[in-house]
């Protein structure tokens, strides 16, 4: 069935929407994807559920931060390349601003503020957001027993392994099972998609920069600009190796920032990773800490831009190709399998977050209250997650 859609939002509306989404996305990349599903599909009806699942599948198969790539994909589907740029910038802005603020505090006082009890309350609420998203996604992506079995298999597999390549293998396996095992059906729900505004992706002009000899570029710049360029190019190269989420990112970042360049000490690096766990959005925001330590706010911006821009450009280019081939029956069947697998991955991520919450009646109460607000009253996560943190401050 065709999803009921609202009119295409303005760029300013998209920016505000994704700032709000990012501000409540605690708990890793699946938490942000869950909030995107809750706001973009359920509340705003800007895209169909299948569209978001396609974005998750594409982002999982490409390098870069998965949640931010999904944000860029949603923006591209709604407003073309400009929408992708706006959504990407808005999705990282809250975490970036908080990380810069914490980095400044760290530089002055040597440690971050203690907010442990607040985040003990956030975790059950984040798990509830993810359970709600899996519920909503499953209602449309699991029409039969085979799709449900595929989703369950993906969830169990993800819960039983922490290997960095697990997500990639699950996406590939889901596509194969969708193509050859699921019953015949419509090709990728082609009627439920919207074409983005066709325009040349302005970010694409930045790609040649990544292939220019760094020595040639640095020779043309003053020393402060050379340092910013070095930060950008270092993290741009790393971003194209980032598959499978932050588990593979941490050792790569440590090698570059600590061993290769000596930008931060091992203690400072460990503190940066710890701070990233307190931020909404993806853990890759820890590169802002490294950039700030090297060159202040400009360095934080250069490091973050290097980590985000190349994967986002690659995703936009591949998203345009995906739209042209989605009418293929074979690809449509594969995407049906991927959508079912993604439902299982979201459910598994909810279990991971739930396990991290403190055991006891208080966590169960916060989880139940948050899930009731999300499912029964259709509350926006922005009105559910922060109050849960305040409740955690009182009860733990």
UniProtKB/TrEMBL annotation:
<feature type="transmembrane region" description="Helical">
    <location>
        <begin position="231"/>
        <end position="253"/>
    </location>
</feature>
<feature type="transmembrane region" description="Helical">
    <location>
        <begin position="149"/>
        <end position="177"/>
    </location>
</feature>
<dbReference type="GO" id="GO:0005886">
    <property type="term" value="C:plasma membrane"/>
</dbReference>
<feature type="transmembrane region" description="Helical">
    <location>
        <begin position="334"/>
        <end position="353"/>
    </location>
</feature>
<dbReference type="InterPro" id="IPR003370">
    <property type="entry name" value="Chromate_transpt"/>
</dbReference>
<feature type="transmembrane region" description="Helical">
    <location>
        <begin position="298"/>
        <end position="322"/>
    </location>
</feature>
<dbReference type="GO" id="GO:0015109">
    <property type="term" value="F:chromate transmembrane transporter activity"/>
</dbReference>
<dbReference type="InterPro" id="IPR014047">
    <property type="entry name" value="Chr_Tranpt_l_chain"/>
</dbReference>
<protein>
    <submittedName>
        <fullName>Chromate transporter</fullName>
    </submittedName>
</protein>
<keyword id="KW-1003">Cell membrane</keyword>
<feature type="transmembrane region" description="Helical">
    <location>
        <begin position="273"/>
        <end position="292"/>
    </location>
</feature>
<comment type="similarity">
    <text>Belongs to the chromate ion transporter (CHR) (TC 2.A.51) family.</text>
</comment>
<feature type="transmembrane region" description="Helical">
    <location>
        <begin position="12"/>
        <end position="36"/>
    </location>
</feature>
<dbReference type="Pfam" id="PF02417">
    <property type="entry name" value="Chromate_transp"/>
</dbReference>
<feature type="transmembrane region" description="Helical">
    <location>
        <begin position="56"/>
        <end position="76"/>
    </location>
</feature>
<keyword id="KW-0812">Transmembrane</keyword>
<feature type="transmembrane region" description="Helical">
    <location>
        <begin position="83"/>
        <end position="106"/>
    </location>
</feature>
<feature type="transmembrane region" description="Helical">
    <location>
        <begin position="118"/>
        <end position="137"/>
    </location>
</feature>
<feature type="transmembrane region" description="Helical">
    <location>
        <begin position="359"/>
        <end position="377"/>
    </location>
</feature>
<keyword id="KW-0472">Membrane</keyword>
<keyword id="KW-1133">Transmembrane helix</keyword>
<dbReference type="InterPro" id="IPR052518">
    <property type="entry name" value="CHR_Transporter"/>
</dbReference>
